[in-house]
Write a structure and sequence with these properties.
This protein has 54 residues and is an all-beta fold. It has a domain of 36 residues. Strands 1-2-3-4-5 form a five-stranded antiparallel beta sheet, with no helix packed on it. A hairpin with a 2-residue loop joins strand 3 and strand 4. 0% of the residues are buried.
Length: 54
C-alpha cells in the first residue's frame, strides 16, 4: 500500500494522460474524456456529460 500526500497553499494539479484533477481551496475540477466536473460551494456541475446513479 502506497500513500501519497500533497500539500499546497493555492492550487494542486494532478495529470495522468488526458485526465486532470485540479484542486483549489474553494473547488475541485475534474476533466476526463471530454467531460468537466466542478464541485464547489454551489454543488456539482457536469459539462459535456451526464450524471447517472447505479
Amino acid at each position: 500500500k502506497t500513500i501519497h500526500e500533497l500539500k499546497a497553499d493555492s492550487e494542486a494539479t494532478i495529470q495522468v494522460g488526458e485526465t486532470i484533477i485540479n484542486a483549489k481551496p474553494d473547488c475541485v475540477i475534474i476533466k476526463a474524456g471530454g467531460v468537466e466536473v466542478t464541485i464547489d460551494s454551489n454543488g456539482l456541475v457536469v459539462k459535456g456529460g451526464e450524471i447517472k446513479a447505479e
